Amino acid sequence: MSRNAQRANANLQQICQTLALEGRVNVVDLAQTLSVSEVSIRKYLTTLEQQGVLIRTHGGAVANASSSPNVQANLNNSPTINTTAEASSLSQPAIVDNDPCKQAIAATAAKLIAPFSRIVVDSGSTTAHLLPYLQTIEGLVVMTNSLPIATALTQKSNNATVLMSGGTWDPLSQSFQGQMSEKMIASYNFEMAFVGASGLDLAKGTTTFHELTKLSQVMSDSSEHTIVLAQSDKLFKKMPNIELSWGKISTLVTDNRLHNDAQRHIQNYGVNVMCTPPMEK
Q1: Rounded to 5 degrees, what are φ and ψ at 251?
Q2: In 3D, which of 61, 63, 65, 66 has the Cα closest to residue 44?
Q3: What is the per-residue pLDDT across 39-86, written as a single tens digit (0 to 9) for each?
């Protein structure tokens, strides 16, 4: 495990210890305690939220009282989490789950990609599910900031040209971020940008807890069409920072649970809404 991954793992353990003792954590306090930026703390909290350990709140998080027994046992009875599992989650490829909803969204979005297209793909747990389709469509030019996606495409593709954005390495997202990444992406022209979303706001667009939102904006600005992949329950997640306004988004690809009123509201912004087929029971 790299030194950065070891430090991230130790910080995640410390956050879980604080949750176990106090039931809640504060971003500012954690940043001071762990001597890292508030942006890094929010990324740690996002990782733990995805694991079901906590629930994000404004300025921090609280322990997830309805989490699985194993997770709750870690919070209640142990000052540490499973370091082997956590290290694995930091080092595994971007596709780390078998979420059928994310898979269906990616399958629907992949229908937009024609052979020999020029596309840019953002890192993220939903966009990562595009990978099996990117590996089979002929002659793609794919730029990404996701190292797992780039690596997988260099190992298997149908004559794809793979471009890495470069930049500052983020071990939590397994991707490159920062100004160098932004400048590299901005120097190209793409037909489509595929990005995810932490939250959806009917009045504003895609939202996030992270202050660093420019990379997704640069991907959108460098592309003729911007496609957002997001589950419909993201509408219930309130985030303080606007990432992409509806005016910048060409298509929202989501699941079939999106309420009709919400779909019509989004379409009124000129956004094409694609919903996945009904899930088989």
Answers
A1: -140, 135
A2: 61
A3: 888 888 888 877 778 777 778 887 765 444 444 444 444 333 343 333
Radius of gyration of the chain (CA): 19
Q: What span, in angstroms and rounded, lies between the C-alpha atoms of 254 and 252?
A: 6
Query: Residue length, the chain?
Result: 281
Domains and CATH numbers, the chain: 3-91 (1.10.10.10), 100-275 (3.40.50.1360)
Question: Token pair for residue 263?
Answer: 């779909």
Q: How far apart are CA 238 and CA 102, in angstroms?
A: 20
SS3 assignment, position 170: strand
The residue behind tokens 């929202």 is 252
Q: For residue 116, give both structure tokens.
A: 């020999």
Rounded distance, CA 34 to CA 43, Å?
13
Rounded to the nearest integer, the mean pLDDT of the chain is 83
CA distances to 5, 47, 56, 81, 223 from 43, in Å: 13, 6, 11, 17, 27
Distance CA 30, CA 263 (A): 38
Contact 204, 170 (CB under 8 A): no
At CB < 8 A and 24+ separation, what contacts does 157-160 make? 160/134, 160/135
Quote the percentage of the chain above a pLDDT of 90.
47
End-to-end CA distance of the chain: 40
Contact 12, 47 (CB under 8 A): yes
d(CA 47, CA 13): 12
Mean predicted confidence (pLDDT) in 88-107: 68
